[in-house]
Amino acid sequence: MKYLPAIALLSVAALLAGPPPTDQIAGVEAQLEAAIHREMVDGNLPDAIAQYQAILAQPAKSRPAAAQSLFRMAQCLEKLGQRKEAHALYTRVASEYADEAGFAAQARAKLAGWTDALPGPRNLRFEQGEPGEVPPGWFVPSVVPPAATSGGRLAELRRKGCRSTGSCVLVFSPAPFSPTNAPQSVGDLMQSFSAAAYRGKTVRLRAWLRLEAADPQDRAQIWLRVVRTNGQSGFFDDMNDRPVRSPYWTKREIASQIDSDAQFLDFGVSSIGKGRVWADDVSFEIVPQSEVDSARDAVQKLYARIDAAYRQGAADDPALRDASYRRYEQRQPFPQSLGRTTFTGFQTAITSFRFAGTGAIATARSEFTRPSAEGRLAGVRTFRDTWSLAAESWTLKERIYLGNRFTLPPTDAQTTRLVAADLKQLAAPLATPEAGHTFYDLAPFGNAIGDARLVALGAATEGTREFLQIQHRLFEYLVKEKGFTVLAVPGKRSEALAVDRYIKTGAGDPKAALAALQSPAWDTQEALDVVEWMRAFNHALIPHPTLSFAGIEASNGTNGSPDERPGERIVLWANNRQLRQSDKRTYAVGFAFRRGELRAAGFRSGNATGLASYAVPALPEGAGDTVLSAAGMPLFFLDIRAVEPMTTLGRWLAEPHLFLSVGASWNRDGPENHLRPSVLSKTYDGLIFVEESHASH
Predict the structure, then answer these.
(1) What would the mean pLDDT of 293-304 be, rounded to a whole number?
(2) CATH class of the domain defined by 413-676+684-693
(3) Which CATH number applies to 1-116?
């Protein structure tokens, strides 16, 4: 995308217009600050260019704001590889804004020796240049009025006060020269150049820094940023977690592997706050591969100790015990995460390794085996691990769960056809998932539950409209036809009281009461519809039993007990993982689907992407949900108890297969991360299948 033609439409006359009103200038300054943030902090160059264009198109802009917008836009275009367009804008800044000395001088410096190819890092030891001037090869991305400092420069080459016998540089913060004197003002001296020679390689930036502080919050930092294709942000480290605050020379370094699609590398020295930062002996180099390999080998050896910790279910190893563990939104100490599952086998190999000098980030692939109710299971887990190097010893700092994939043989095509044929004979088609309809198609479901006092309804996801609608419809049926009076949720005893009070008295806010249950399934319009139906039922004029809403004790593998509400029949809304067969007093119904969409908290590469609707692609052939789909019925109920064990369907139900089990979080790296093994005939008494799902509201 080319940006210059839009700028060319701005006439010189408009740029040279007289001074606008003060309040309008303030608005433009705020827009300029937002555009700079978009460029420098977010790294979104196309958006920043659009914002600079909008500023230049406004009559109410000061000449300094226009000069800075034009100059910064030229920088963005240069980073995006549009060097001809950038050259044109630098030329305009130098000629049309010669009175804006700071920007005009920087533009002329850019134009001097301009070539189509961006040079690599240069003048790192500051041998070139004159004292008091910005060192050649470096530039300052922001400028203060010339009267504020000597010539408006925020960086000056110095011959005295250096750590080395040569030259160094002094970087100023703009805060002392700003009307607001902001404590977090940033002064930068930086370079930007082509990343072509560094793609896929590990580089290291080093510098010696010392701080002349004017405020306790002042700090000195170096930073390294990768600009990827189309201005996308890649690796970035600004040492914000390890700044220099000392008045004495302190060595700092940043190392990282450069993204394979990197277009530009930016690095620099920052003075943050109100102080001044001295920098000397800057170096930028490709780290020898032997050094990277040595670090990788050292970390790989530590994975044998991690594997042992998983098999033992505990970690008292000094290299591991202080690490944290994050799985989606849940964070806990790494040792506490080990006791949840018993592994009989666990073996890890590094699949990618990003060396960072005093640290490293490794992606690890762990093959595991573990016992379960479904038999001995095998699979692969992936993690992103952050390692820290201190005193020549590596320690695990953080482990982030990325995904879990079980390995089970798929159902073959012949068995799939036979299972589908049995399903067509035994499964009962359902007319609709929606409540408010007649119940003629639910007679097989009613016969299946018999005299059960607790019917537990699961769900393969907590954000599927059809699951919530079917649960609502089944609850209405069980109330009107079977005498059930309690709708229950797992746990949440005290939180459920507000919902119960609303359906019985009308007091309170039902939306707030449902939100307090802290469950994605209940914080939906579909759940609110159920609650409003219960309230209307309780307030009907004709004689009727009183419905209740309650929390009952239920956890993974237990449906709760009907004895918690003596004399009443209970419908439990849960998810599939919380259901298990128990006795004749309970009937557990699992839910399954093949494709569609769902509402969930999304995650990609371990990072949250927000609560949204996500597409679920069709699963591979041979997966459990795909076999159920082969029956050709878009919505059906199967009474698993009634299936003869020796039929093809009976044998298939008694074997472990992979089914979608999502819960409240969706791993966007692939639906296979949500395929979990289940033996349907050992887990559920009945099953409801939905071919295509839609996201809840």
Answers:
(1) 94
(2) alpha beta
(3) 1.25.40
